């Protein structure tokens, strides 16, 4: 693979999202680049999941592009202070939702909003940066109607396949509790030395696990559909 091909593959994966995790969301692009949280789901129709997430159906059916969000007449009744302006797309059998606010809406609502709760047969994976209340989390509903979570850097012990992807991407950091004999001081030193690598590694691993690729240029240009999502009360 040539260097140019390698760069194209990385740009279409998820690593680039992690590389910009701690950049200002207001980065001057028409779409998104910094501080993006990801929610991906399969086993449910895209429109159904988006509505369950809190999206306005009338607006969804207009198929407006994210880049045009400031020029659109919004549906009546929407309180814009309680809206996440997200973009979404599909890759294979996955729907993905991108948000550059503090966190992913699904993270805020899946426990308290019945419509957001994962159903049996639906797989949901969410990388929420939680800039409002660290740490960043990986949440995973593998299809049994239950949701597990781990902090960025922790193993996904409930899913051998997801855990293997995290370890292959070097997204599992040593811990004094993992049986490796690592001391607390050694673990902290490792975190300090590799902190900048963690978010790109986690996003890379999830992309590999899901077979999910999202084109960086398309997202930066805002050329994906817009979803106006009402934030749940928290």
UniProtKB/TrEMBL annotation:
Top-level taxon in the UniProt lineage: Bacteria
Protein name: Uncharacterized protein
Native organism: Streptomyces rectiviolaceus
Source organism phylogeny: Bacteria, Bacillati, Actinomycetota, Actinomycetes, Kitasatosporales
């Amino acid at each position: 693979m040539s260097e140019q091909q390698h760069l194209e593959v990385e740009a279409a994966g998820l690593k680039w999202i992690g590389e910009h995790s701690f950049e200002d969301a207001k980065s001057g692009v028409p779409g998104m680049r910094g501080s993006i949280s990801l929610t991906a789901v399969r086993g449910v129709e895209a429109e159904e999941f988006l509505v369950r997430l809190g999206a306005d159906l009338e607006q969804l059916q207009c198929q407006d592009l994210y880049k045009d969000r400031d020029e659109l007449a919004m549906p009546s009744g929407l309180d814009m202070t309680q809206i996440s302006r997200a973009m979404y797309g599909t890759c294979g059998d996955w729907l993905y939702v991108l948000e550059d606010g503090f966190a992913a809406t699904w993270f805020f609502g899946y426990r308290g909003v019945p419509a957001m709760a994962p159903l049996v047969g639906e797989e949901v994976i969410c990388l929420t940066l939680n800039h409002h209340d660290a740490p960043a989390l990986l949440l995973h509903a593998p299809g049994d109607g239950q949701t597990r979570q781990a902090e960025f850097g922790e193993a996904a012990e409930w899913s051998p396949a997801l855990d293997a992807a995290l370890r292959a991407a070097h997204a599992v950091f040593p811990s004094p509790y993992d049986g490796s004999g690592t001391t607390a001081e050694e673990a902290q030193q490792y975190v300090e030395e590799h902190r900048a690598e963690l978010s790109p590694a986690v996003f890379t691993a999830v992309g590999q696990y899901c077979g999910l690729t999202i084109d960086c240029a398309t997202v930066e240009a805002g050329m994906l559909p817009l979803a106006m999502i009402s934030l749940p009360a928290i």
